[in-house]
Amino acid sequence: MNSIFQNKRIVYVDILRILSIAAVIILHITADLLTRTNDFNTGSWWISNLFNSVSRFAVPVFFMISGAMILRVEIKSYKDFYIKRVVPLLIPLFTWSLIYDLYNQYYILKSNMGIGEFIVDFGYRLLTDRNYVHLWFLYAIIAIYATVPLISKLVKVCSQKDIRYYLLLWFIVSVVYRFISDVVFRLTDQYINIPILNIPFFTGFLGYFILGYYLFNFDLPDKWKNILYNLGIVSFFLTPVATYFASLHSGVLDEMFYGNYSITTFFMAVGMFVFFKEKEPAISEKTNHKVKKMISSLSKASFSIYLIHLLVDLLVSRRVEVEATMLQTSTSLIFNIFAIFSISYVTVKVLNLNKFITQILFGGRG
User: Fold this and answer.
1) 56 with 262: CB under 8 angstroms?
2) No. of helices (H) and no. of strands (E), the chain
3) In terms of DSSP H, where are the helices of 251-354?
4) First-to-last CA distance in the chain?
5) In sequence order, which residues have a C-beta less than 8 Å from that of residue 115 and are 6 or more positions away?
6) Which of 50, 29, 31, 20 is nearest to 317 (CA)?
7) Which terminus of the chain faces fewer neighbouring Cβ atoms within 10 Å, N or C?
């Protein structure tokens, strides 16, 4: 069981974490303007759409990294696993739900809610994931972690071919079927329902979780690597354009190609993972010790940055106006990204100086 927690740093995984947390910050910053206007021909909308589109790999990659790291180990004790893996997620879920709810109720909404009423309301929001927009990730990862003691044993007894079969079926059910259904709905206002494809085990983020394990542990043929690279690159360019035309058709922002299971998001995430895994030897060889140490520090802080960054966003970010030019929008977004990331990272490192605070706020991570 101790081997679970002796994590040797893997440079490309650390880089993927850093890129993903930066992308999450971009997603949240750009969402504000994208949802404030239905004028899809302004420079500010296009820049926000472009930044948002190329950042869509973030959430799937986070799940893939989690699967790659945790499914590779042997879990002998359910109790130890829950104490050392699940409880450190439950603690910050409660803490940050409380922090964001207090901030929202008494600072933003100027609520006069009494303590008793607040406790009841907070308990309901905590139970139903209604406290703050980004905390859904904790609910999702905790739910998946509950399956890990079984899933980790399952993937180890499966052959590479068995896992490929699972991933292919998951891809058909969760990505392709969803894509076809979305296209049909936009053309006919009717969703298609194919009951034979409603297979619970082959839906949801569990697929990304197992996909991360597969890509981490097995090498793909060069042919497939090239195909995934190219599809990933095409998806980076296609997503903002497809979102523009889909939004024009709908009259409001259409997030069909923004979704975590959209076909473009899937190929962006897989392409990113495969690309950086392939570049691991070169990156490790050319990166000196100090840079590796900084990469490791940023990577370790990524979970904590995820928790705190929206609070920092509320305090320091500059709102982008709909009428802003492309240059103004780009400058403002870059400033916000850099400011939020930097302040969040420094704040996390300062808070990490106190072990008790680190445990309460970040589940002991930092």
Assistant:
1) yes
2) 18, 0
3) 263-278, 280-286, 289-300, 302-316, 326-351
4) 22
5) none
6) 29
7) N
- pTM of full prediction above 0.90: yes
Spatial distance between the Cα atoms of 25 and 23, rounded to a whole number of angstroms: 5
Q: What is the pLDDT of residues 263-308, one digit of tens each?
A: 999 999 999 999 999 999 999 888 899 999 999 999 999 999 999 9
Stretch 168-179: mean pLDDT, rounded?
96
Single out the residue of 22, 10, 27 nearest to residue 265, CA to CA: 27
Tokens representing 308 are 């705190």
3-state secondary structure of 317: coil
Choose the weakest-confidence range: 105-114, 290-299, 336-345, 354-363: 105-114
DSSP annotation string for 214-263 = HHHHSPPPHHHHHHHHHHHHHHHHHHHHHHHHHHHHHSS---TTTSTTSH
* Main-chain phi, psi angles of 38, to 5 degrees: -110, 15
Identify whether the C-beta of residue 17 lies closer than 8 Å to the C-beta of residue 302: yes
Determine what percent of the chain is predicted with pLDDT higher than 70. 98
